[in-house]
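During the no-cost extension, the postdoctoral fellow (Dr. R.K.) reprocessed legacy sequence entries with the updated structure-token encoder. One reprocessed record is reproduced below for audit purposes.
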Amino acid sequence: MSLPTPRPGLVVRYAFLWSHEQTRGREEASKDRPCAIVLACRRLPDGTLRTAVAPINHRQPDDPTASIPIPAKVATRLGPDAGQHWIRIDELNVFGWPGYDLRPIPGSAGRYDYGMLPKDLFERVKAAILERQRRLAGSFIDRD
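Re-encoded structure tokens follow.
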């Protein structure tokens, strides 16, 4: 069971903590879910790599600008489960890799990643996150 190398565009299974959960005083996520790594940089003095992930879910947010749909072909290849998926760009979790909340994929013999997003999709996600952050319309939750 080896951990993948964190790189932008890699989809991993992670216990994502939503801002509404944190507001209610929760420190642990209510569920594990696929998340796309959107940033992996800046090793801390102890060697820790800072990583940011965006959650993937079935429910499109009320604000359609807060998510990017994953094409069906890509979702099928990644295979978290059936149905439409969106990458949420309005909330990110930030942590030192691998952290405490990286989870193995159920039934996958110690595998932690689903695969890579296509480059064009990842570039759209990255641009949308940067634009939201520029407008101060997104949130980061530090999980360390």
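Helices lie at 19-23, 72-78, 119-134. Residues 10-142 form one domain. The remaining legacy entries will be reprocessed before the final report is submitted.
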